[in-house]
Amino acid sequence: xxxxxxxxxxxxxxxxxxxxxxxxxxxxxxxxxxxxxxxxxxxxxxxxxxxxxxxxxxxxxxxxxxxxxxxxxxxxxxxxxxxxxxxxxxxxxxxxxxxxxxxxxxxxxxxxxxxxxxxxxxxxxxxxxxxxxxxxxxxxxxxxxxxxxxxxxxxxxxxxxxxxxxxxxxxxxxxxxxxxxxxxxxxxxxxxxxxxxxxxxxxxxxxxxxxxxxxxxxxxxxxxxxxxxxxxxxxxxxxxxxxxxxxxxxxxxxxxxxxxxxxxxxxxxxxxxxxxxxxxxxxxxxxxxxxxxxxxxxxxxxxxxxxxxxxxxxxxxxxxxxxxxxxxxxxxxxxxxxxxxxxxxxxxxxxxxxxxxxxxxxxxxxxxxxxxxxxxxxxxxxxxxxxxxxxxxxxxxxxxxxxxxxxxxxxxxxxxxxxxxxxxxxxxxxxxxxxxxxxxxxxxxx
Length: 446
Description:
This protein is an alpha+beta fold. The protein folds into 2 domains: about 1-90, Immunoglobulin-like (Sandwich), CATH 2.60.40; about 95-445, Purple Acid Phosphatase, chain A, domain 2, CATH 3.60.21.70. It contains 7 helices and 22 strands. The protein has helices at about 120-130, 160-175, 180-185, 215-235, 275-285, 305-310, 320-330; strands at about 1-10, 15-20, 30-35, 40-45, 50, 65-70, 80-85, 85-90, 105-110, 135-140, 190, 245-250, 250-255, 290-295, 335-340, 345-350, 360-365, 385, 395-400, 410-420, 420-430, 440-445. It has an 8-stranded mixed sheet, covered by helices on one side. The chain has a 6-stranded mixed sheet with strand order 11-10-9-20-21-22, with no helix packed on it. The termini are far apart.
């Protein structure tokens, strides 16, 4: 049996710790999970849930079990080491307020797009980041697995059971193996925001590169299996599958959106109506600066007709939901910082909003390990936001030039606050250049 422990979401006084037992025909018996200065929590044999890939794994192959252990009575802003049957992970609870400028910042790690076969040092890079700035929490903005690569390519027969086996193997390799991604997962609490490669490139639309997706019945089968596994590995509460989540750290308000799981075919909706309305309401009701986590950039061009067919749609393609989101951001009373990934380059950009209102900022971290070849992409933000006018206002946008470098990367963001102003320091860490000290990029949220 192999046991893995991964911190999922935390609050100021609680933590959800995800456990996975693999390579075992039966769930493990009861054993303790320990945290320092807290009474042990029993990991109950009765609470394990067997992974079935929505029923497609044959009974004799159902050897992976998951459960989430809820820990409460924790102290705010405190670091913990969790251990269980030889598995270990570290996490911190959320602080009640942001540190002052002369104190250690509240640090967030941002990443996306991890292809295990092309890992060029993610684990050692996490060691370097931890030695300098141990992140309190992290956001992983999609493509935590590449289910549609090295698995259902042309010439490989499509079967539901084959997909179930292959997809589960990819999750286990990234989560429970010796990959660098496993090290990322075990360091700090995680909010996941799935994107297209949790399903397939251009999900939920057909992908010409993957013939299996050209048929509606097969798309439904892939979706069903992939969503079941995403729910088992990336969601700490099944009721929140595809849904948004919010939390606060002092005056800083966070909104974590899933802009892929409930995306509709075509060019209309990238999330469920209830989540879209909740997002707009959140922007309009901000009492302080906000941090919005999404699976794709908002500072982007809509994909062309060919791009939408052969590659993937961007958020600006979604004519029912992108324009209202842009309008709400442009009229918000407080700064909004967008954290995202997907596009295989790192970047920091911003725009001045209407009538001198606070700026919108966007930080992209992508890829952690590029899926094919060397990571060579860079791209400045469009000169206007939104890039294409739909009858509403457009404002100038700018890219921080020191952020335009190609390479596998993560970002860290350090937050401090004084007199209602949140100061942010962004560092882009390049996996293939571990000795290079990141250039800090600084700005303020009001």
